[in-house]
Amino acid sequence: MNIRDLTYNPYSITAVVLVVSLAYKLPAVIRAGRNPLLRQVGGLLLAACGVFIFAAPPTIAAVNDITGVTNFSAPWVYSLLTGFCASCLLLIIKWRGGPPESIRRARYWVYGSYGTLLSALWILFALGDHHVERLRDLDTYYANTPYMREMIVLYLLGHTAAVLITSALLWSWESRVRGTGWLHKGVVLLGIGYAMNLIYDVVKLTPVVARWTGRDDLDWMSTDLAPLIAALVGLLIALGFILPHVGERLSHRWTTGREYRALGPLARALHSVPAASAPVALGRFAPLELRLTRRQTLIRDALRQAAPFMDAALREEVREHHLAAGCDPATAAAEADAITITAAVSHMRATGRRTPEQPLRLPTESMQDLVSISRALRRGPGTLPAHRTATAEEKSVMS
Q1: Best-predicted range by mean pLDDT (46-50, 151-155, 194-198, 248-252)
Q2: Buried/exposed code over 198-221 (b: 16+ C-beta within 10 A; e: otherwise)
Q3: Gap between the Cα atoms of 70 and 65, Å rounded
Q4: Which residue in 4, 17, 8 sits closest to 234, CA to CA?
Q5: DSSP per-residue letters across 138-184
Q6: Where, residue-wise, is CATH 1.20.1070 in the chain?
Q7: Region (Disordered): which ranges (predicted)?
Q8: Residue 385 in 3-state DSSP?
Q9: What is the end-to-end Cα distance of the chain in Å, rounded?
């Protein structure tokens, strides 16, 4: 199998990736209802899918047969590509934002210029002689044919203009979104993809110009190299549009999972504290976010129940001990809270009565504080000498 046999396989791979991307974004587009940005992303991915599906030679042959017009696929694929370019421009213009009047003028300019371009492509195709079907090398085969030549050059110039404008908008925007995480990564991928689109245009236009001078030794650039570049460009652009959403979602799930696991030791330490109300039962396949909320609620409820049994003097003693040992204030406070909670739970199990001591208010307003306490519990209360810990716990029970 040589390179000519492999040439269009990337089209199929890219088409599959784009279809999967569209299927992934479709529920969000449907849920968003009237959100114009999401609708435009969905439309752009749909146009990209169309370009790669209809640009494959088997599809080209099928469309030509169905319509009964030789090489009908040429202006059809060029129109899809032109529509894709226009969709990209519209999305980037809307995505970047700005004064409403400026956005409106830019949209009208895109509609007008690319609508005119689409009309010109079909008019030139109708005027040209295209009776010989070409599935892979139409650009170079008809490079010297009147009207067909103009159609080919027009679509390439229109594509190049869209790529240049979109690249300039993206790279000017890139500096404004630095530090935004996944959005910045998506913009960079889009910028690289559109920069490679310029290489695609050069690779397609070079053999066409060479044909004007009577040379056909560069045809391989259009038939073999350009499709490989186009496939890579399609993958980069698809990733650029879906990465911010997928990345944010995966990051959120990762953070949620870490917090859920980190709160495990504290939840287990408070497991024996009677709940103020019956906990909500969750199924085995309940969403992670719901399980985290349930664990946070149970922990907060248990801490409220155990608060009257917490010894403020014990907490302060342990905190001072850790500060003296060189711990930073946050770590010292977490260690002190962990030992105080452990002693309070032991007191509740041993006596089942409220203490006369003034209840201690632990810094539990932030769940990050609870995570620190839970991690301290995972490390164990061995940060104090054993006899000192025992004495402290005994003092808490006897108070």
Answers
A1: 151-155
A2: eebbebbbebbebbeeeeeebbbb
A3: 8
A4: 17
A5: HHHHTTTSTTHHHHHHHHHHHHHHHHHHHHHHHHHHHTTSTTSTHHH
A6: 3-257
A7: 377-399
A8: coil
A9: 85
DSSP annotation of 282 reads: -
Tokens 């045809």, located at residue: 219
Check: CB of residue 310 under 8 Å from CB of residue 360. yes
Residue 141 burial (C-beta neighbours within 10 Å; 0-12, 13-18, 19+): buried
The position carrying tokens 């698809």 is 238
- Which structure tokens are listed for 76? 């059809």
**pLDDT tens profile 122-179:** 999 999 999 999 988 899 999 999 999 999 999 999 889 888 888 888 887 777 777 7
pLDDT tens-digit series, residues 234-288: 888 878 877 887 888 888 888 899 999 999 999 998 888 877 666 666 766 678 8
pTM of the model: 0.69
Residue 243: what are its φ and ψ, rounded to 5°?
A: -60, -45
Query: So what's the pLDDT on residue 124?
Result: 95
Q: Alpha-carbon distance 118 to 103, whole Å? A: 22
How far is the C-alpha of 8 from the C-alpha of 228, rounded, in Å? 8
Q: What single-letter amino acid sits at 119?
A: S
> At 57, which amino acid appears?
P
Confidence (pLDDT) at 152: 93
Give the Cα separation of 334 and 289 in Å (integer): 25
- CATH code, residues 3-257: 1.20.1070
Q: How many CB atoms lie within 10 A of CB 225?
A: 19
d(CA 256, CA 33): 27
Instruction: Match 């110009």 to its residue by tokens.
Output: 209
Distance between CA atoms of residues 399 and 396, nearest Å: 5
Q: Which two tokens stand for residue 21?
A: 């991307």
> Could you tell me how far CA 331 lies from the centroid of its own chain?
35
Token pair, residue 277, equals 């109300």
